[in-house]
């Protein structure tokens, strides 16, 4: 049985985790599948937006219990390799040049929060619950720490890491973990609105903005200044930027924007 599916509708791809009976928990197959999808999409100019969602009652409830049980017998080297593959998955999603929208319902726990933190825009249902519960198992959210901290800041990450507390969507919105909270029956409409906004943006501009943010997050001041100067110069002289500016000045829609219905 497939652990995930990828569907396409024009410039929109939808990646659905498909392990509903266990709340779409991670196992090695899920990790490999998400990594492969991101690797394939990275160089696919036909796809401009990736929607990430889970089938069934939850978005993603973290690690599969069977996988966790198997890890009890892993050697240190096997655990290092396992963690490296998990890190590669999150990195692939986090650095995807296309816009990533997370559609979150039910539970997003542990690594599920990691997925949320790697999305560019997160829409959550009012009933959604988030938690970094690893400490309650004597573990820690190590691989996702850099993504979580970048998303919600050191202070909020610190509180969630050490308490293992679950929070509701309203609090997740307040700390910046999600961007929008809507009633469950309006989740799809809210995601559609976000996607429509994203399709109004130049795809190269989105990719360049995401690359710039990566450097802002991790680079030195000199690196950030250099890339920012080079990025705006490249955007202004590039085909997409030229077309967008001309369209704006002529009060026309840019060539990448879908026709208004």
Key terms for this structure?
3-stranded mixed sheet, 50% helix, 6-stranded mixed sheet, 261 residues, 10 helices, single chain, alpha/beta
Rg for CA atoms: 19 Å
Q: How far apart, in Å, are the first and last alpha carbons?
A: 39 Å
Structural class: alpha/beta
Q: Largest sheet, if any? A: 6 strands, mixed
General shape: globular
Strand order within the widest sheet? 1-2-3-4-6-9
- Unreliable spans: none
Short recap of the structure:
Helices cover 50% and strands 16% of the residues.
Outline the structure in words:
It is a single chain. The chain has 261 residues and is α/β, with parallel strands linked by helices. Helix content is 50%, strand content 16%. It is built from ten helices and nine strands. The strands form two sheets. The protein has a six-stranded mixed β-sheet, sandwiched between helices. It has a three-stranded mixed β-sheet with strand order 5-7-8. Helix 1 (28-42) packs parallel to helix 3 (76-94), helix 8 runs antiparallel to helix 9 and helix 9 packs across helix 10 (239-249). It is globular and about 65 Å long. 36% of the residues are buried.
